[in-house]
Amino acid sequence: MKIMHVDASAKRERSNSRALSRYFLERLREDGVDIEVDYLDVTVDTPPHVDEAFAIATYTLPHARTPAMKATLAVSDALCKRLLEADALVFAMPMYNWSMPSAFKAFIDSITRAGVTYVNTEDGRIEGQLVRQKVLFITSRGADLRAGSPYASMDALTPALRAAFGFIGVAAPSFVDAQPLQFADQEARLEALERARTELAAVAANWANQAKLEPASTVESNNNVMA
């Protein structure tokens, strides 16, 4: 299984989301899944933020793009290729002020590409192209935003991720959210992390079971098509 693993926390080694994403990959290996990891840290290799040149180039038909336009889109093209070639996507990030880190938003802007990660059909529909990939979002949150919490209505991260990736074809992503962490006592933080690890172990077991049922030839065929 080829996994594109993206970390987006500015805290690096002190990051809970990074630690949880590593835990998930370890559990996959322990469950017998042969994984190849394509790793990206968007806090180090942050995709360029959208500017006028990118906006013009991305909506210019491929055959009409100038060399300068192609150069502008090169990072985006490479990221889209990595996504489409992966069998699964693991995105780990903290919640910053109720939504995603700006570096991950830049990543989303870079991979939401007409004619690449989504296409416009002749009958006017939009078809996302990431329909075969398993997708997991691992988030860490300072406050408790679960249902029933006073802060539940302030979760702008989950709907934003569902909408952005749903648009490019991801219909049923998994979410594991560690919360509350920052605005909680030590016992609540430990409970939140243990709860997240338990949920991640369950997701890993599910992916492992699916991998055992999926014929190797299917995965091979898909990878060849996307290459």
TrEMBL record:
Cofactor: FMN
UniProt entry tagged with the keyword Metal-binding: no
Record's keyword terms, sorted: Coiled coil, Flavoprotein, FMN, NAD, Oxidoreductase
Lineage top rank: taxon: Bacteria
EC nos: 1.6.5.-, 1.7.1.17
Pfam families: Flavodoxin_2
SUPFAM superfamilies assigned: Flavoproteins
GO MF term list: electron transfer activity; FMN binding; oxidoreductase activity, acting on NAD(P)H as acceptor; oxidoreductase activity, acting on NAD(P)H, quinone or similar compound as acceptor
Catalytic activity: N,N-dimethyl-1,4-phenylenediamine + anthranilate + 2 NAD(+) = 2-(4-dimethylaminophenyl)diazenylbenzoate + 2 NADH + 2 H(+); 2 a quinone + NADH + H(+) = 2 a 1,4-benzosemiquinone + NAD(+)
Coiled-coil intervals: 183-210
Complex and partners: Homodimer.
Similarity comment text for this entry: Belongs to the azoreductase type 1 family.
Record's protein name: FMN dependent NADH:quinone oxidoreductase
Organism name: Paraburkholderia fungorum
Gene: azoR
